[in-house]
Each structure stands twice: as C-alpha cells, then as structure tokens.
C-alpha cells in the first residue's frame, strides 16, 4: 500500500446496534476493501464521551447527545486503507441524513441527525486522537489480508 494508507475510527452508535445494522455497516467497509484492525462492543462512559466530543461539551446539545451515546452499546472500530478517513466519511454520508445520498449508510438507514447510526473521524488528526481514546495500542491488530494484492496496486 502507498503512503496514503491511514486509519480511521468508525463507531456504530446505539441506534445502529439496536436496529441490527452492525453486519450491514461493517460489510460496506469490507466490500470497499478496507481492513478491520480493531473492534469492540462497549457502553461508553460519560468521561469517554466528554473526551471524544470535547469540542461539543459546552454546546447545548451535548447532554442529550451524551445521554443517547451512553444509552446502549456502541461498536467501536478502526479501519485501515488508502485515504481511509475521507473515504470513510463518503461511505457514511452527510452528518444530517436528510442530506445524505442514497447508497451511503446514513442515506440508506437514517432520517434524523440525532439518530444518524454512525460516527466517523473527520480528519487524520481526529482519527488518531479518537483511536487512542477508544483502544489501547495492543488492541490494534497488524495483519495483511489475503485479498490486499487484489485491492491495491
């Protein structure tokens, strides 16, 4: 793979888990050719959510968002591949599902912003910070998929 290989953090929020969309969402990333390097199911603590959404803590919507994100299990994942952060955002669709194109995760599975199924890192720097919040270094698995030669030049 090239120097554009990077990692991104994708979380399937409680609404996605409760609606049984986990397999469909994971398949979108696998089908595209991205490599899963970490996965865990957890109910995030308020402290983790305050750190993850640090830029939103003082905003009026934070308490409601934080309560929702801790209301049930979240599937935290790390994906690796060429341009993974930007491509991950494309696969997810616009933050507001009403602005998401059909064929994107949010365009196909969501209607309201407060129930938009997934979170995805918005920059390489954010991805690095979020991955470090949700995973210990030893939880990130280094491996080469057998299909890599069929996905990348």
Automatic annotation (TrEMBL):
One of its GO terms (biological process) is GTP biosynthetic process. It comes from Lachancea thermotolerans (strain ATCC 56472 / CBS 6340 / NRRL Y-8284). ATP binds at residues 13, 61, 89, 95, 106, 116. One of its GO terms (molecular function) is nucleoside diphosphate kinase activity. The active site is at residue 119. PANTHER family: NUCLEOSIDE DIPHOSPHATE KINASE (PTHR11349). Its EC number is 2.7.4.6. This is Nucleoside diphosphate kinase. The keyword ATP-binding applies.
């Amino acid at each position: 793979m090239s120097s554009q290989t990077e990692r991104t953090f994708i979380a399937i929020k409680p609404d996605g888990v409760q609606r049984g969309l986990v397999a469909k969402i994971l398949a979108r990333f696998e089908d595209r050719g991205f490599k899963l390097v970490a996965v865990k199911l957890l109910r995030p603590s308020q402290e983790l959510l305050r750190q993850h959404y640090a830029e939103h803590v003082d905003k009026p919507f934070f308490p409601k968002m934080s309560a929702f994100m801790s209301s049930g299990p979240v599937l935290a994942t790390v994906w690796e591949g060429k341009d993974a952060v930007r491509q991950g955002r494309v696969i997810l669709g616009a933050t507001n599902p009403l602005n998401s194109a059909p064929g994107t995760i949010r365009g196909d599975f969501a209607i309201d912003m407060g129930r938009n199924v997934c979170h995805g890192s918005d920059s390489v720097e954010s991805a690095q910070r979020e991955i470090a919040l949700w995973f210990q270094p030893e939880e990130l698995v280094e491996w080469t998929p057998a299909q890599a030669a069929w996905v990348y030049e």
